[in-house]
Amino acid sequence: MSDVTPSPDANGHSEPSRRDFIYIAAGGAVAVGGAFVLWPFIDQMNPAADTLALASIRAPFNDIAEGEQVTVMWRGGPVFIRRRTQADIESARAVELAALPDKDARNENEPGAEATDPNRSALSAPVNEGVEVPEDVRASLIVMKGNCTHLGCVPVGDGAGDYNGWFCPCHGSHYDAAGRIRRGPAPENLHIPPYSFVSSTTIQIG
Questions:
Q1: 173: number of CA atoms within 13 Å, CB side?
Q2: In this predicted model, what pLDDT tens digit does every residue of 49-58 receive, in sequence order?
């Protein structure tokens, strides 16, 4: 190689000069060095190990008595698991869709589905292959993120409010027995996280 750019051959191609080689080597060194400098900044934006560990949790539901609710933590927020009574189910199913301020089920298991009671209950949750969960048990269960859709407060449950569901005392949002907003400033139904039945007694959230 020489510092003088050689003349092109008959096909219009020319051999790279020493200057071309220096440019290419310097560019490669800058690219590699830049990657080493930027990597710590990019890597720190990835979720922490403890966050990844909470990407999904398993929660047993067989010990929840009819009419009771338990709260589990998932991704830093509360999730309600409620075993509803037959009266709860019947009152929720009796509500016409037209009467609901939010007609979207807000169910990550069924995106875009209407806010009917079956679409909000565990009837809409996937059941793993080989797992059997009675339909009446799935109909009785409702699993929801425990944050009011107004400002994120944690509503009071266990049949609270004017619609026998959940009530947020901070600003007065009332949810019914299917967790649907019925009155108050909250714009949406309580959100339902993705979850599935991994055994006849346990669900996996996330």
A1: 26
A2: 555 556 899 9
Rg (CA), the chain: 28
Q: Is 174 known to be catalytic?
A: no
Judge whether 171 and 185 are in contact, CB under 8 Å. Answer: yes
Six-digit token string for 96: 């016409």
Using alpha carbons only, what angle is made at residue 72 by residues 46 and 144, rounded to the nearest 5 degrees? 90
pLDDT tens, position by position, 127-166: 999 999 999 999 999 999 999 999 999 999 878 899 989 9
Catalytic residue (choose from 13, 150, 171, 191): 171
3-state secondary structure the chain: CCCCCCCCCCCCCCCCCHHHHHHHHHHHHHHHHHHHHHHHHHHCCCCCHHHHHCCCEEEECCCCCCCCEEEEEECCEEEEEEECCHHHHHHHHCCCHHHCCCCECCECCCCCCECCHHHHCHHHCCECCCCCCCHHHHHHEEEEECCCCCCCCCCEEEEECCCCEEEECCCCEEECCCCCEEECCCCCCCCECCEEECCCCEEEEC
Structure tokens that stand for 132 in this block: 């059997």
- 179-199: burial string, b at 16+ Cβ within 10 Å, e else: bbbbebebeebbbbbebbbeb
